[in-house]
Write a structure and sequence with these properties.
The chain is of the alpha+beta class. It has 4 helices and 7 strands, in the order βααβββαβαββ.
Length: 169
Amino acid sequence: MINILKAEPRHADAIYTITKSAFSLYKDNLHAEARLSALSETKEDVLKDIKNNAVYVAEKNGAILGSLRIERLSEDVAYLYRFAVDTNERNKGVGAELLARAVEDCKKAGYACIALHTNSKYYKLARYYYGMNFYVHSTDNSRGYIRALFVKELTDACDKADISCVFRK
């Protein structure tokens, strides 16, 4: 059974390792020279996120299988980033459980929507987010690839929410 937990400092090394591995694979799927800040992240950056943002880990039998992070950008908008699952655990429901917990907690916190960026040409990943009821809001090429801004509505207020804060991410 997979447990979804709020990350603690003791999880930082595993989060760091899984993030590097998953985002290396992600970069390989970009088919472009792209700047991925996840690949230049340090363990200290992970610890800072654990302290300042909502960081979740999927754990099974003491092993960390994946993680994701949520940052409050405004009263209405949560930003999901560094969503990573151990490459040996992909397609086994780990990501879905992580995402479900993050969505549940964001609803409880009163957010109107969750936003994230991903490569619009990474079809498998884009289809995954569509399947989780996210939609493409817009795209840009600011990082050297076509980056899609996906949004998930948590309440009817999402239509009225100012999501301009997401464009700085």
